Amino acid sequence: MLTFSRKYYQLLIIGVFLLLVLFFFATPVYASDIRVTIDDEAVIFDGQGPIPINPRPPMVALTFDDGPSPNTSRILDVLERYDARATFFVLGYRSARHRNIVERAANIGSEIASHTWTHDNMAHLSAARIRESIESTSALIESITGVPSPHFFRPPFGSTNDTVRYVSAQMGYTITNWTLDTWDWRNRNPDIIYEAIMNEVEDGSVILLHDIHLTTAQAMEFVIPSLIAQGFELVTLSELLMFFYGELVPGKIYGRVYDEDLEARESLYSMGVYNDI
Ligand SMILES: [Zn+2]
């Protein structure tokens, strides 16, 4: 009797334990929870046939020219806070002065590319000097970040001519301008910069900014969280161009095109504008 009683209680305890386990872990499974991925397209099975959904959020590339400067650090603070990335087109002579800022930008996942050594108008230089200005800046970037500079550069003022394009093609470099101009260097007003971006931004926008101005850094405090809140993914220019164009063509200009005299060819706004070299 004593033995039976002990066994009875042992079974009862095990039974209660198993019921508790079932209670806590058994949640109902609905068909709509089951997802399968086919290639890049996520498909939800809900019993009414597959419904394709867009797997990619819209992308935007913030690009900052003419730095680095102490104001760059403020922008890096914001990027880091929101786990966002940007591209910095740095000048060689400034990077040599602010190596730690360049290094930090690279460390938080942003991209560093050449804006030439001294911000000369490339259209006024010889082929040899164009090459030297791009190469020396790229070499410095690699020495600071430990990774090769991307094979594209942004000419000061967006200014190019046949020689610039020829040298770029020879070097295996693409010329990357922009699609959305904030005129931040001229208006020096965070509200105007914010409005310019939020009114014009679209999937694939390459936004031109200048990290040497305090007002641009101040604008980023609002622009970056607002873009994210609107569903944009802030990516590097390499990532954006790779997604939209795949392999880049050396010597080709991506973004707005300006001629030798800096007169904007307004009809050629869109990305992917091609100029024969
Ligand atoms: Zn510039």
Structure described in brief:
The chain is built from ten helices and twelve strands. 43% of the residues lie in helices and 16% in strands. The chain has two domains: 2-53, no CATH class; 59-268, TIM Barrel.
Walkthrough of the structure:
By secondary structure, this protein is an alpha/beta fold. It has two domains: 2-53, no CATH class; 59-268, TIM Barrel (Alpha-Beta Barrel), CATH 3.20.20. It is 43% helix and 16% strand. It has helices at 2-25, 70-81, 92-97, 99-107, 127-145, 162-171, 184-187, 190-200, 214-229, 237-245; strands at 35-38, 41-44, 51-53, 59-65, 87-90, 111-114, 152-153, 174-176, 180-181, 205-210, 233-234, 253-254. Helix 6 links the parallel strand 7 and strand 8 (174-176). The chain is elongated, with a radius of gyration of 27 Å. The chain starts with a helix and ends in a 23-residue tail after the last strand. Residues 27-44 and 260-277 have low confidence and may be disordered. The structure holds zinc ion (ZN). Zinc ion (ZN) binds next to loops.
